[in-house]
């Protein structure tokens, strides 16, 4: 059986975070949603748990990092085309996200990045299979 991955992210305002990611086209599993958390479905094997910061504290003795000054991770998503990269990142920026790094555009790879409404870093990458040897 394939392993599933669940990324857990602290958020300041769950409603605002859900609205942001809904604008990007993500859906949420109502079985794992309440006032403290929601399960954002990325695909059949990956989900992102958005947890209100106080609730997030139940799962670790560490404080969430200040995303204004520190990065705890970069969550990378694959895309099927350059247009898909641009579409997702443009929607993120229009929905209240902010730019992160300069675009990556090198032989066979194209990517852009953004920060969500809580300052978490996201990267969207397209890797051309004809160039990457896939």
From TrEMBL:
It comes from the Bacteria. Residues 3-127 form the VOC domain. InterPro entries: Glyas_Bleomycin-R_OHBP_Dase, Glyas_Fos-R_dOase_dom, VOC_core. It holds the Pfam family Glyoxalase. This is VOC domain-containing protein. Gene3D superfamilies: 2,3-Dihydroxybiphenyl 1,2-Dioxygenase, domain 1.
């Amino acid at each position: 059986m394939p392993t599933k991955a669940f990324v857990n992210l602290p958020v300041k305002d769950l409603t605002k975070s859900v609205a942001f990611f809904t604008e990007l086209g993500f859906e949420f599993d109502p079985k794992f949603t309440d006032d403290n958390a929601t399960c954002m479905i990325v695909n059949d094997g990956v989900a992102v748990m958005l947890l209100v910061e106080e609730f997030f504290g139940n799962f670790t003795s560490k404080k969430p990092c200040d995303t204004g000054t520190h990065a705890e991770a970069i969550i990378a998503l694959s895309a099927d085309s350059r247009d898909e990269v641009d579409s997702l990142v443009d929607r993120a920026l229009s929905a209240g996200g902010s730019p992160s790094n300069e675009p990556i555009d090198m032989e066979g790879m194209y990517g852009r990045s953004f920060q969500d409404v809580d300052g978490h870093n996201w990267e969207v990458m397209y890797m051309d299979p004809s160039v990457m040897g896939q």
